[in-house]
TrEMBL record:
<dbReference type="GO" id="GO:0005524">
    <property type="term" value="F:ATP binding"/>
</dbReference>
<dbReference type="GO" id="GO:0043565">
    <property type="term" value="F:sequence-specific DNA binding"/>
</dbReference>
<dbReference type="InterPro" id="IPR011006">
    <property type="entry name" value="CheY-like_superfamily"/>
</dbReference>
<dbReference type="Pfam" id="PF25601">
    <property type="entry name" value="AAA_lid_14"/>
</dbReference>
<feature type="domain" description="Sigma-54 factor interaction">
    <location>
        <begin position="154"/>
        <end position="383"/>
    </location>
</feature>
<keyword id="KW-0597">Phosphoprotein</keyword>
<dbReference type="InterPro" id="IPR002197">
    <property type="entry name" value="HTH_Fis"/>
</dbReference>
<protein>
    <submittedName>
        <fullName>DNA-binding transcriptional response regulator, NtrC family, contains REC, AAA-type ATPase, and a Fis-type DNA-binding domains</fullName>
    </submittedName>
</protein>
<dbReference type="InterPro" id="IPR003593">
    <property type="entry name" value="AAA+_ATPase"/>
</dbReference>
<dbReference type="InterPro" id="IPR001789">
    <property type="entry name" value="Sig_transdc_resp-reg_receiver"/>
</dbReference>
<keyword id="KW-0067">ATP-binding</keyword>
<keyword id="KW-0804">Transcription</keyword>
<dbReference type="InterPro" id="IPR025943">
    <property type="entry name" value="Sigma_54_int_dom_ATP-bd_2"/>
</dbReference>
<dbReference type="GO" id="GO:0006355">
    <property type="term" value="P:regulation of DNA-templated transcription"/>
</dbReference>
<dbReference type="Pfam" id="PF02954">
    <property type="entry name" value="HTH_8"/>
</dbReference>
<keyword id="KW-0547">Nucleotide-binding</keyword>
<feature type="domain" description="Response regulatory">
    <location>
        <begin position="5"/>
        <end position="124"/>
    </location>
</feature>
Length: 455
């Protein structure tokens, strides 16, 4: 643990010598200045946790104003550094003034060595704590930048993605209804957000609804709202998602999961551009831009009588098909690098890199779970990493039936066995800690160790 660096500023060379002799064996670095005008330059050149500062530098002047001036200069430019003021005059008012201006403490000449050391150690610990908080805040700020980047921007430069974004830019300025299709995890919601960001409605809200998560009994209340007393739990008036999204964009995700009889109610609201809250007879006009998304083949559902053809025509004036990750070429590595930075910051492993074999493995894999699966794979590899280079063996990618996959892919049981062995290696002799790391009980871990003949 660092002991701290100290800068002593006093025009009395005898005081400087005495303090230097006392403090040098106790702290990492002790530097002395007899001229306070050199303080700014010295603090800019070197790192200090404490400035031990004399209050008076001019002969015959005992007001302490010089010390107060330099205290202000230090705290303005280096607020994390502790300042302990030292003077031969026990002026309580001056001490109080200095403390109010940011001094950490105040000592008198002649000093008691034991008390002086205790005061200095306490002040240095305070400075180290401030530095840690500053570091954590900067890291959190940087992490937020990294994490939030995918909320504002779509990452990649493949021709397939560029084609999609070209369409997005064309249709975003209009109010036409858009249907976004594609496999799970391809980023359909990000496309919807990009459409809203580029639209004339960008200053208003984008309201998202996961249609697969809305129960049939709550569908009308969730989308159209209700009035107080309309049903047992309706204790107050509540606006539905259509009203909340008024003047903005309504994003209906997984619309293919909506049951057939509720599709008629949704179609009526879209066609009439008005909704009626449950328990009310008063229609409420709404002005929304509708964007829907699904991973299902809606024309096939229409043929099977599971999706209304008139609703399909209403929602897909423009259809945007988001390509799967496996068709986006080098975007796999671009996204992998993004997620690597994201989770390296999150788990404080900022020097991590992918070696060439790991990159090849990621490029060759089929990615049935698309971007979402890639993100989870990167996070898992970062968590379990033991050095700064992520290798191919650090990625436990699942086999995919019917698709060409990386021949190095491990079977599910082999993946599980490897994770258990890694946890046991990282916690030698401590099965409970290994179980905690894996998120399972100790008994479950013992059972699996017996199953895989580990240990």
């Amino acid at each position: 643990m660092p002991k701290g660096n100290i800068l002593i500023v006093d025009d009395n060379k005898s005081v400087l010598s005495a303090l230097e002799i006392l403090l040098m064996p106790e702290f990492d670095r002790v530097h002395c200045l007899s001229n306070p005008n050199l303080i700014t330059t010295e603090l800019r050149k070197n790192s200090y946790q404490l400035v031990l500062l004399d209050m008076n530098f001019k002969a015959g002047v005992n007001t302490g104003n010089e010390g107060i001036f330099w205290l202000n200069q230090i705290k303005e430019n280096h607020p994390e550094i502790s300042v302990v003021l030292i003077t031969a005059y026990g002026d309580v008012e001056l001490a109080v003034k200095a403390l109010k201006l940011g001094a950490t403490d105040f000592i008198l000449k002649p000093w008691d060595n034991t008390k002086l050391l205790a005061t200095i150690r306490s002040a240095i610990q305070l400075s180290l704590s401030r530095e840690e908080v500053k570091h954590l805040r900067l890291k959190e700020k940087e992490l937020k930048k990294v994490i939030n980047r995918d909320e504002k921007f779509i990452i990649g430069s493949s021709p397939e993605l560029m084609h999609i974004l070209k369409i997005v830019r064309k249709v975003a300025k209009t109010d036409t209804n858009i249907l976004i299709t594609g496999e799970n995890g391809t980023g359909k919601e990000l496309i919807a957000r990009e459409i809203h960001r580029l639209s004339m409605r960008k200053e208003e809200m984008l309201v998202g609804v996961d249609m697969g998560a809305v129960s049939e009994s709550l569908f009308e209340s969730e989308l159209f709202g209700h009035v107080k007393g309309a049903f047992t739990d309706a204790r107050e008036n509540r606006a539905g998602k259509f009203e909340v999204a008024n003047k903005g964009t309504l994003f209906l995700d997984e619309i293919g999961n909506l049951s057939f009889h509720l599709q008629a109610k949704l179609l009526a609201a879209i066609q009439n551009r008005e909704v009626t809250r449950i328990g009310s007879n008063q229609p409420v006009p709404v002005d929304i831009r509708l964007v829907c998304a699904t991973n299902k083949k809606l024309p096939e559902l229409v043929e099977k009588g599971l999706f209304r053809e008139d609703l399909l025509y209403r929602i897909n004036t423009i259809q945007i098909e988001v390509p799967p990750l496996r068709d986006r070429g080098n975007d796999i590595l671009v996204l992998a690098d993004f997620f690597l930075k994201k989770y390296a910051y999150k788990y404080d492993k900022t020097a991590l890199k992918l070696n060439n074999q790991a990159q090849d493995k990621l490029l060759k894999y089929h990615w049935p779970g698309n971007i979402r699966e890639l993100e989870h794979s990167i996070e898992k590899a970062v968590i379990l990493s033991e050095n700064n280079i992520l290798k191919a063996d650090d990625f436990f990618l699942r086999p995919v039936t019917g698709h060409k996959t990386d021949p190095d892919c491990l079977r599910l049981e082999e993946m599980e066995k490897r994770l258990i062995q890694t946890a046991l290696d990282k916690n030698p002799g401590n099965v409970s800690a290994a179980a905690d790391q894996l998120g399972i009980t100790r008994q479950t871990l013992y059972n699996k160790m017996k199953k895989f003949r580990i240990g």
